[in-house]
Amino acid sequence: MGSPGPGLLSLVPFVSVDHMMRIVWDIGPERMIVELAAYIEEDFRRWELFDKTPRIAAHSAEGVIELMPTSDGATYGFKYVNGHPRNAAAGRQTVTAFGVLSHVDSGYPMLISEMTVLTALRTAATSALAARVLAPPGAKTMAIIGNGAQCEFQAIAFKALAGIEAVRLHDIDPKATAKAAANLAGSGLAVVSCRSSEEAILGADIVTTCTADKRFATILTDNMIGAGVHLNAIGGDSPGKTELHRDILLRSEIFVEYAPQTRIEGEIQQLDPSHPVTELWRVLTGLAPGRRDRAQITLFDGVGFAIEDFSALRYIRDQIGRTGEYVNLDLLADPDDPRDLFGMLLRHRPG
Ligand SMILES: NC(=O)c1ccc[n+]([C@@H]2O[C@H](COP(=O)([O-])OP(=O)(O)OC[C@H]3O[C@@H](n4cnc5c(N)ncnc54)[C@H](O)[C@@H]3O)[C@@H](O)[C@H]2O)c1
């Protein structure tokens, strides 16, 4: 007699990269970003209910590995994510991630999922959600500085959620811009490839920065940003890793996800810790205003917060039954008598 197979309580649904890509194409990338934004907005509207902590970061000379936990009291989630700007040169992603969603009452995981693709989708969804309340009315053109892995996701999110019709691309590596322009060719967006950041921001109502560099970089200087622009800065997301000149921050109305984390990681690490910022959930719930007038410079200092990943995992959990895009992993030991873990091991002795 062979050993009995894993029992029902052993099994946890696992969504691989391949499953995730099938889910994205089943729903359609734009529609999925719109639906993810709705899940994120729903969770931001019940912000006060969540356990919140700045993410736990392990820094090295090459990059950072982070854990991002949160819970709404019934469901717990966390994401493992790295950020290694020099990875691309070795053929690896700058950012990779996976995550887990669990039942708080039993502590048993209900889902384990790839989150590299999902992070790009949720980051774009969050950026576009912020732009809906912060961008100047009638914004049609967005510049994207940094045309790596996140770029196209940002472009299609702003088309789907913020009415963007044209994107102006720039990267210090022209191959990255050519890649993004080719990928966006069938997107319905007008795409212009630019030789400099200065050229890219010409006529742009929204400027997205998504560069990767493990140091204080100055992608945008103060003289480049005129009245009325909305800045969506997502590449400055770690201590010592920023994209905007400090003077731009001093002229902007600044919006963040979770201030205690953004003060450590975001553009605002360059400012005094008491500098006023508004958390996005307060705008989405009507507790604080978004953009107040046409001339204002608004800045979404996005670093990525655990609740966005929780929402994204919640969304995927709701898709897997219908799509069947998962496999069950034999992840949890399940002895017949819960206290007889050693007995289970004995019964599986080979030979
Ligand atoms: N805020 C969030 O939630 C969030 C989520 C995911 C990624 N990120 C961050 O976004 C950034 C981009 O991520 P990615 O996965 O696209 O990285 P990536 O390495 O794939 O792409 C980064 C691109 O930036 C370009 N670049 C570097 N310096 C530049 C400069 N001075 N001017 C113009 N282009 C420049 C590089 O050539 C590269 O093409 C990273 O810093 C990452 O940590 C943030």
TrEMBL record:
Domain of life: Bacteria
Pfam families in alphabetical order: OCD_Mu_crystall (PF02423)
PANTHER family: KETIMINE REDUCTASE MU-CRYSTALLIN
Family designation: Belongs to the ornithine cyclodeaminase/mu-crystallin family.
NCBIfam families reported for this sequence: PRK07589.1 (NF005762)
Protein name according to UniProt: Ornithine cyclodeaminase
Source species of the chain: Roseiarcus fermentans
